[in-house]
Design a protein that fits this description.
By secondary structure, this protein is an alpha/beta fold. It is 36% helix and 25% strand.
Length: 433
């Protein structure tokens, strides 16, 4: 036991489980997840939930409609509320269950924000609304777990996890967050404790809702694990582990039984969507193992990420769709040198745009970025104030790590290649589908 302030904290082995939206997309899925949790109820657990199913996409549609004052706001609001109420009904949760009123209060908050003033900052408005997907999902899960005999406590992560004011990409204030997370999630009575909370969301420096970026729920789990000195993080997916390629697009895929932290960081950096790029480092710093397992087959072994000197050598394929290729050149056809690159990246930083691939020649700078319909026109206009800019949309970026010529040839043989770059054992190719 140790003491935080005047509160006794009992040190027991703690694990963090993170469940993505697909794992709770309907009532049968919620029941399946509940049985996974029940099998480990003798441990201290922190359960981190994403929004249910495709709720985030629905909320993004709602946010766009509200911000631009489209006529379908009420219709999309109804879809959002009805989707969750159907799950609640099928789970047998009623207004007699403690905490039920919280969900109606959350629905009312979404309605208030979407039918009220939206302001003129889209990223700010986005974060004020989208957080309710995680909050409602986790509250439903806590109600159902308690109803089915798995005692748990719901924690609003916004009361403990704090960031700067970079909306849609909040950067964690570790000094402020660590003691607050430690106090909120620690076991204070010596009995097994299960806490339910949210991924992806936090509170900004000025007290507003904020998100941690795309797939930030994985990162949330890692943050909590780091702060609590957890023994392990398990990310529950619809796949049996980390593969050398997405089986939806590549044949003869291979599952990795284990990966080193370094290899996992490299994969995440190039866009592997099984893990978030920021997730690995906090775990590596404290040697906390990360396991990726399937909620569809929980008995099967997954992929374990841990400290290891072994190297990943088989070809690994990462496909990023809906890409935009920008070709940037100086207005006077002068060389793209250090000053130009500085000015280009100042614009990238201002708009918080991540570069997936870049290639520099004497007269041009080519980059590949994710599509963002809201941000792209403004971003390009800002670049055009200093440079000539052309762009192509609807492209794909294929990254092959540990490639050989036979693998490379087989991958691009039937594709229209626009840019191909080799750097060491990594090949990156922009193709037109």
């Amino acid at each position: 036991m140790r003491v935080v302030g005047t509160v006794p904290i009992y040190l027991t082995e703690m694990e963090v489980f993170k469940f993505g939206g697909l794992s709770t997309q309907d009532a049968p899925s919620v029941k399946r997840v509940t049985e996974i949790i029940r099998a480990d109820r003798d441990k201290d657990l922190v359960l981190v939930f994403s929004a249910m199913g495709k709720t985030t996409r629905l909320l993004e549609k709602l946010i766009a409609s509200a911000f631009h004052h489209y006529k379908d706001v009420e219709e999309v609001l109804t879809q959002f509320v009805d989707y969750h109420k159907n799950i609640i009904s099928e789970l047998g949760i009623t207004n007699s269950d403690p905490g039920f009123d919280d969900i109606d209060t959350m629905f009312a908050e979404v309605r208030k924000r979407c039918l009220g003033s939206t302001g003129d900052d889209f990223d700010f408005f986005y974060d004020q609304v989208v957080v309710w997907g995680e909050l409602i999902a986790s509250r439903i899960m806590s109600l159902y777990l308690n109803k089915t005999g798995i005692a748990c406590r719901w924690v609003d992560i916004r009361t403990t996890l704090h960031t700067n004011d970079c909306f849609r990409e909040g950067r964690v204030d570790w000094e402020k967050s660590l003691p607050m997370i430690n106090k909120a999630f620690s076991n204070t009575d010596g009995n097994t404790a299960i806490h339910v909370t949210q991924g992806f969301i936090a509170t900004s420096r000025n007290g507003h809702n904020i998100t941690l970026g795309l797939d930030g729920s994985d990162y949330s789990a890692a943050i909590i694990a780091y702060c609590l000195d957890a023994s392990k993080v398990t990310i529950w997916k619809d796949v049996e582990g980390i593969m050398n390629a997405d089986p939806r697009y590549f044949s003869d895929t291979v599952k990795f039984e284990s990966l080193s932290y370094t290899d996992a960081i490299e994969l995440a950096y190039y866009g592997a969507n099984v893990i978030h790029p920021k997730t690995i480092k906090p775990l590596q710093n404290k040697n906390i193992h990360l396991e990726v397992k399937s909620f569809l087959a929980p008995a099967k072994s997954g992929t374990v990420i841990r400290e290891s000197s072994s190297k990943l050598l088989i070809p690994t394929f990462i496909l990023k769709q809906s890409q935009v290729m920008l070709n940037i050149s100086s207005v006077d056809f002068s060389f793209i040198i250090e000053e130009n690159l500085r000015d280009i990246f100042d614009v990238f930083s201002k708009f918080n745009v991540r570069v997936n691939m870049m290639h520099n020649t004497a007269l041009s700078f080519t980059v590949c970025i994710d599509t963002n319909d809201q941000k792209l026109p403004l971003f390009i206009d800002a670049l055009k104030k200093q440079f000539n800019v052309t762009h192509q949309t609807g492209l794909e970026l294929i990254t092959i790590w540990h490639f050989d010529q036979a693998t490379l040839h087989r991958t691009i043989s039937n594709k229209q290649v626009l840019v191909e770059i080799h750097s060491g054992d990594v090949a990156q190719i922009i193709v037109k589908p």
